Amino acid sequence: MAKVFISYRNSDDPSAAVLLARSIDERLGEGESFLDSKSIPLGVDFRPTLWGQLAKCVAMVVVIGPRWLVPDADGERRVDRTDDFVRQEIEFALQIGIPIIPVLVGGAAKPSDGVLPASLAALEHRQYLTLRHRSADRDLERLLDQLQELVVASNGPGTGAKRSDSPPAAGGITFNGRVRVGGDIVNGSKYVTRYE
């Protein structure tokens, strides 16, 4: 089971996400990173795997590049849409309480206060890492050290409070222990139903 979930935007800087996944797997062991494009088998409904893996991870890395907040062809930022999977992934990670590490790539700046939708406002206050080409080895090492600490802590006995795979949705709607994420209702281990 993967321990580190990597959230990224295909239209932003997906190569950075691939680099991070490869680096995490090299340091922590093959399969310790979850990257949808490499971790989900072809031809299957990706939603159950996506939500189930996120519920079981001990940390999330959010890759933020220069196009992460850029409006799409319709003039709307994807992150402002409730059906945006990147937004839903981060909302779910916030709801279940796992550490979220924003990684800024390609010269991107940290989102300033008030720029993100209210459901993602907590992301603005997370300690972040800037991955720069001139100090990439040092930057990656810092990230990998932190992730390794989180993974090791999650494997040991008495590692602290157990988190629920089905927590109440912060500011969202909870249905009998299930969490509404965008238009999907999930129970932390599988896609349950589409809520319209």
Automatic annotation (TrEMBL):
Domain of life: Bacteria
Coiled-coil region list: none
Pfam families with a match to the protein in the record: TIR_2
Any one of the GO BP annotations: signal transduction
Domain named TIR: residues: 4-144
Name recorded for this polypeptide: TIR domain-containing protein
